[in-house]
Automatic annotation (TrEMBL):
This is CoA ester lyase. Belongs to the HpcH/HpaI aldolase family. The keyword Hydrolase does not apply. Its cofactor is Mg(2+). It comes from Falsiroseomonas selenitidurans. SUPFAM superfamilies: Phosphoenolpyruvate/pyruvate domain. Residues 12-243 form the HpcH/HpaI aldolase/citrate lyase domain.
Length: 307
């Protein structure tokens, strides 16, 4: 199972209860936008937010962005209403339905089944993808099975705020470091295990791993550091809770010209070695082999998608 290749450096959350923000998000620089029906919408406003999201699917030009809607959880009375309304809407511009607080593979199977039934009944021309948000202890424990539960799944996302609550972590921040974690002398990253596990499960299943948001949108330095950590571990991009975070995330997850140039040198050196019947070669004093080709090809392919 391999997800559709899409640019996914930044993923901007937009409350579906705020339709005046939709055109700004569509015109902005985020690679992906998700209209949120879940946590950012009060219970009394769920129906109105759903109607706003449905209207926005065909009423706004979203360009080449990944367009997603985060529906309410399967433990609420809103989930099935959200899915049916979105998939019965005219057209097929919706790319992904994001499912929050996924706890095990059965929930993904149930979501896939509902989507298949509604798509068949509505005559939808294009199958919608799934984006699975891992934000509970149960979901993190079952993340490998969750990642392979449906061929619809395109991406896995880390929901840090709810995960912190589910794990009983002593913090009220959304992402970021905690001075209590390392004790005197330095600060370690308390999110390392969760981020690494979600990324590993996603990559093993051929999905795009998306790191969780950084809540302090005024802390540019902290955001950049968090993005670099996610990138170093293999994340494809990061969720943004404010449009002011998008440019920094795009820059952090975009290979720079030097990296791309070096990747092209690696490919050229390995091709020369192949023609000579060798499986490895030295370049700039470092050994290259078949694994180096895969790494370089991935970087060049991403740069080409970025134009």
């Amino acid at each position: 199972m391999t997800a559709i290749a899409r640019l996914h450096r930044s993923e901007l959350a937009v409350p579906a209860i705020r339709p005046e923000l939709f055109p700004k998000a569509a015109a902005g620089a985020a690679d992906a936008v998700f209209l949120d029906l879940e946590d950012s919408v009060p219970e009394a406003e769920k129906d109105r937010a759903r109607a706003n999201a449905v209207a926005a699917l065909g009423g706004i030009d979203w360009g080449r962005k990944i367009l997603a809607v985060r529906v309410n959880g399967q433990d609420t009375p809103h989930f099935y209403k959200d899915v049916i309304a979105l998939l019965e809407a005219p057209g097929d511009r919706l790319d992904v339905i994001m499912i929050p607080k996924v706890g095990d593979a059965r929930e993904v199977f149930a979501a896939d089944l509902l989507c298949s039934q509604v798509e068949a009944a509505a005559g939808r021309a294009r199958r919608v993808g799934l984006g699975l948000v891992i934000e509970t202890a149960k979901g993190l424990a079952h993340v490998e099975a969750i990642a392979t539960a449906s061929p619809r799944t395109e991406s896995m996302h880390l929901g840090v705020a709810d995960l912190a609550a589910s794990l009983g972590m002593r913090t009220t921040a959304i992402g970021g470091l905690n001075p209590d974690y390392a004790g005197p002398g330095g600060m370690l990253d308390p999110w390392h295990f969760a981020v690494a596990r979600v990324i590993t499960a996603a990559r093993a299943a051929g999905l795009r791993p998306i790191d969780g948001p950084y809540g302090d949108f005024r802390d540019a330095e902290g955001l950049e550091a968090a993005a670099r950590r996610g990138r170093a571990l293999g994340a494809e991009g990061k969720m943004a809770i404010h449009p002011g975070q998008v440019a920094a995330l795009n820059a952090a997850f975009q290979p720079d010209e030097r990296e791309v140039a070096q990747a092209r040198r690696v490919l050229a050196a390995m091709e020369a070695a192949r023609l000579e019947g060798r499986a490895a070669v030295a370049l700039d004093g470092k050994l290259l082999d078949i694994a180096s080709i895969r790494q370089a090809e991935a970087m060049v392919a991403k740069a080409e998608r970025l134009g």
